[in-house]
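Morning, I've got a small favour to ask if you have a moment. I've been staring at a protein lately and its backbone has me curious. You're getting the sequence in one-letter code plus the fold written as tokens. I've dropped the whole record in just underneath, so have a look:
=====
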Amino acid sequence: MMRGDQAAFARLGEAVREALSERGFSTPTAPQRLAIPPLAAGEHTLVIAPTGSGKTETAMLPVFDDLSEDPPEGFGALYVTPLRALNRDMRDRLEWWGEYLDLEVDVRHGDTTQYRRGKQAEDPPDVLVTTPETLQAMLTGERLREGLESVSHVVVDEVHELAASKRGAQLSVGLERLRELSGGFQRIGLSATVGDPSEVANFLTGGRPCEVREIDVGSDVSVTVREPEITDEDEALSGQLMTEPDTASHVRYIRDLVAEKESTLIFVNTRQTAEALGSRFRELDLPIGVHHGSLSKEARIDVEDRFKEGEIDALLCTSSMELGIDVGRIDHVIQYKSPRQVARLLQRIGRAGHRSDEVSEGTIVTTRPDDTLEALAIARRARAGEVEPAAIHEGSLDVVANQVPGLVQSRGSTPLETAYEIVTRAYPYRELSEEGFREICSELHRNQVVWFDEGEDRLETTGGTWQYVYGNLSMIPDEETYEVHDIAGGSQIGTLDERFVVNFAAPGEVFIQRGEMWRISEINDDEGKVKVSPIEDPAGEVPSWIGQEIPVPAPVAGEVGELRGVCDAQLRAGAEGGSVARDLAGRYPADEYTLGEAIDELSRQVEANHPMPTDDRLVLEREGRTIVLNAHLGHMANEALGRTLSALLGQRTGSSIGLETDPYRIELEVPGGVSTTDVLDVLRETDPDHVRTIVELGLKRSDALAFRLAQVSASFGALKRWEGSGRLSNDRLLAALEDTPMYDEALREIFHEDLDVEHASRVLEGIQSGDLEVATVGGRTAVGTGGMSAGTELLSPENADASVIETVRERIRDDRMILLCTHCHDWKVRTKVRRIQEQPTCPECGSTRIAALNPWADEVVKAVRAAEKDDEQREMTERAFRSASLVQSHGKRAVIAMAARGVGPHNAARIINKLRESEDDFYRDILAQEREYARTQSFWD
């Protein structure tokens, strides 16, 4: 009689069972026990289990079994994976099974050679591992389409990752196009833990019946939250690392955790943090590698292999390691700072362990009270299985625009009704109206991507269809990047965003990549390359990469508010901070020191007799021009409510309102005359049903919408991909494309990914009904000042000169200047205005006589340093000395004035010495001088 835990293998044929014995699989894993029975029965199945728990074999054993008993004529199974990096692992793991069972397993992606692709078209492998984008290309190839007719199984790996992206929406339509070729096929999804398994299953199958087999991950995860205590060693370490003692304590604590284990993954939330932390470990000569998506493929593979071989003890990584890249067994996972989301924590911590019935262990290293309370809430929710839903892109129109040309290219002349029926079988498009579909086809027709004959309701190819299809296989937006090459070896190290190169990079500048310091030797804009050489310097700039912020969901932010409320009640009842910490330690996975550090901020709030912001109390505070609304709503709702407040306050004042948000605060920079009463009035009087309209009106003037619109328009063929928004002013772009499907889609995407207007509306309803309290405070509070900067965006009412002034201010702050000591002549630095101290001082001689010169003024520097001067050099030197005198008297204010266009020392002195009431007037005078210079420039040139 067969044991119960082996019954799953009994569903498989003799050849596969023999292979299992040969491979050493004597007992099924938990996912295999649960999922092999429905898979072997041919049912659509979603398997939810942690990475490393045998999901791949769970899916593929029944597939191999079926294909070995009935070999296909063309492709038998497709294994679709979102990352090409996974293909290397999949190939290693699947080829063995294929060889044993006499089935061919092959890989196809963007880097596959033309020769190999031709072989696959002529003689398709039984199993093909590929990406969503390569499947798009395969659906249009004539020979490949013939091979795809025999597909009987499609496995979609990391389906949760795809379900929440436009790549997934594209794949969902692609699978329906594949169904047109092959008829029905079994769909198998492999997923990490998600909050809405049935929705992900519907996404996978197009709403068809699906078995969901889920492993309870939370019960097998052990998470500890720790804020490191600063020790005497950290004080010494901070000097060595050129950093603050608290940061040194984080480095030291992580170092010690890594030393205790054999192999550790250290997850961080951004690539910048990975590089900054990596450079600190490198300073200590620790065997810790850096791994993220902006490193070159060769650099990533090298560090993966070294980690697997045990040459390095830990990998410092971003979400690049969340998915199933094989780096061997992981003992422990460290998460540096809050992971922001429950799903992300489970996926990251879940990479540890995975021997039979082994618990995955991890530590969240926190840095400040917000961080600690957030990590505690996430850790508790993870254990309880309270995971966020996958945010499926419902009805993204640019994906439809992307799919229609491919569909027509592969099918030829196609009735509109047929195309509509195929697209709307995909789950994200089940509610797309025929009228909306027609509008998309009409737009494609106007852009000459397809021919839409409205009289006969038919879609045809045009001369541009083929070019469009192969130029738009991916829904990943194009971001301009520069390749970084080591000038010595010529090898590529990684990539840099264009924004970083434009704003920071210049020959001689130093930055960090791969945890190492590099000095820029040359920038080639035509080839998009930055050539660098390695240096030893602990003070490099960390590159900036686009799209890094992980939003904190409303339920997590709400639980942080609940925690603050619980502590508030105990502290006001007379409990000591230590007592409150001990009470929390019984319910949350943290020690008393960590909890005590977080509670200290709350104690100061109570001692000052300030109301505590909680999940059901908002606190409004003000100091100077800064008004803060403490609101535990999460990133997206705070962003929506903040935009509503800034737009309405901006209308009242005719000035720009600075907006900065985090999950717990909305910070407004307001002009004089705006009071907390004005903010209260907006909260109490604004119709909750109007929030979306108000936010949408504000977006119509924003760079954010113009940026999205440029990307979406490329998918419709309305803009060439190389044009982007830079070739067309944002105002013209927004005006030209309003009332088009592209505009609708750009708005939909922003609301989907960045703004929760429904939650913001409910908050206004709660305030107005009295269910939510709004308390006010004069001055700033302990909790209110505890936030972290998340970037300021100015939202400008029409005709408001304040927005122009802010533009001038920001432009000058980003301008570069040469600072030259006119006393010793030795010290010279080229830097951005924003980085200059309030009173520049020479680090060589201590003098404050520092000339501020335009960045191209190298001749002036030579003139000042020249021993003997001609008349022209004497004149230059005098100008430099006048500049230095101004800087000595007025500090950074003088530097700002002289950074303006056409403003020399004489005009700068006139601007500085003018009496005025506000800083805005200072920049208004600078702007007036710049306009005067522009008007008269022809006389000077």
In short: The chain has a mean pLDDT of 84. Residues 119 and 171 are 25 Å apart (CA to CA).
